[in-house]
Amino acid sequence: MSNAHTKLLLILDDREFASGDVRHLVGVRRFGDIIYRRRPLVEHFRSALPDWAKNCLVRLQNADDLATLRLAIEQSSEDTAACVIAGRAGFPQVSDLAQLIERLPYAEEDFTDSLYKPLLVFLRNAHDLIDLWPAFTRAPLHSWEQAWQDAQRLQSLQPLDLGKISDFLSFTSGSTATRHFNEVQVDAYYYTKRSSDKRKMQAEYSFYGLVPERMRPWLIQSFDFQDEGERASYKTLRYYLADASLQWVHGSFEAETFLPFVERLLFFIKERPQQFCSREQSAAIARELFVGKLERRVEDFLEMEAGQRINQLAASADPELDIRRQLERYRKLYKRFERGFTFAYMVVGHGDPCFSNVLYDQQRYLLKLIDPKGALSDQELWTHPLYDLCKISHSVLGDYDFINNGLYSVGFSDNNVLILNINNANQMSLKPIFLEKVRALGHDLCVMRLGEASLFLSMLPLHIDYPNKVMAFMLKARQILDDVEIG
Questions:
Q1: What is the pTM of this model?
Q2: pLDDT, tens digit, for every residue of 178-207?
Q3: Same domain flag for 414 and 461
Q4: What is d(CA 290, CA 444) in angstroms, rounded to the nearest whole number?
Q5: Are residues 128 and 205 in the same domain?
Q6: The sheet that has 152-153: what strands, in order across it?
Q7: pLDDT tens digits for range 305-315
Q8: CATH label of the domain that carries residue 473
């Protein structure tokens, strides 16, 4: 590290809390604590920095942090620079941020990203911030009214203002992390999905054109399918809506806003087109979806070296967590409740209506489902009536989105039992709303939750790169099986 790299204070001013329309989506929290692609924004910011710059980073959150920063400036030499970045600054291309930070030790003039209310201010002499200290302690730089006439304008990087709902939605829409074989490109107008799994791309693209017309208002139209040789792609219009997962994990739903959301989601479930089938056929479809697939996924999990290690660790802590024992327990419960999985019809299913695939505007009651499982023929549209409902339940009742976003901990209770702790806020008071509406549709809650347990266990090999998450899924599945047994 050169001497120039040691003479920089990189200050992330995260004293401000989200407000207005953004607060409706993420609750009362600092911008750095907003969860984006499974991590808080402050972690995304830190990970984008060059290694040397991470040692220079100061995150301001309160008066104690301000006092620590002032002391650091006062003890620094006159050739130490300071770069103040607002916590509400969003960087869609983090590589551009990294390149800017790399150049800071060699900058010779003060600069900002805008003349008024800049989100980024570089001061060649950090001691200049002491001259501004009374105003700086009262409010972040980006809230000041005066113009920064004596500073140059930054041209290479224009951060988004996440305090503005338009910029926030632009930054977070399409924020769900993709699988390793998928690639997503987002611009101001289009969302382009590309994958080496060409059949899947064709099926997702074809789904909108194949579904009955009355389902289409709930979906986003796909178009412009392209076979690109080794890969294929299709487009949809970009909707500037936050997904339900982001709103759910940030506690933005209240009873009066969650009720109409659930009503619309379950209305979609109720109104899906139906097609008669024999009860024997329905039972066979259910067994394939809720038992056969699970058995194959467990086998895949145990064939993985990492899966064997995780399972051994879980079983050593609690033998009941062993995936083989959980599978056998599940089979017994499925046999007990199998009649509840038998219907006289099939439905056109979305295939994956988890909260991250549901876009929703609380103020306008606008709901759109994205990323369907897809279909290449009319026959492939039809599925079991419970599958989509179980997918919704594992977001509402199963806390899937909290686990998927890392908002959990796995530890031991006082009596040395391995437990899963979910870092949720007001969601426990909202879950009964969902339960009441599901009962009103005539569904057996134990059957729905048993199907939900199969989803958690089926996901183990798909998330093998995150061992803690796999352990959390195992614990959650056991908890659901306990609940089903009790009834």
A1: 0.86
A2: 444 467 888 889 999 999 999 999 999 999
A3: yes
A4: 16
A5: no
A6: 57-60, 8-13, 81-86, 120-123, 111-112, 152-153
A7: 999 999 999 99
A8: 3.90.1200
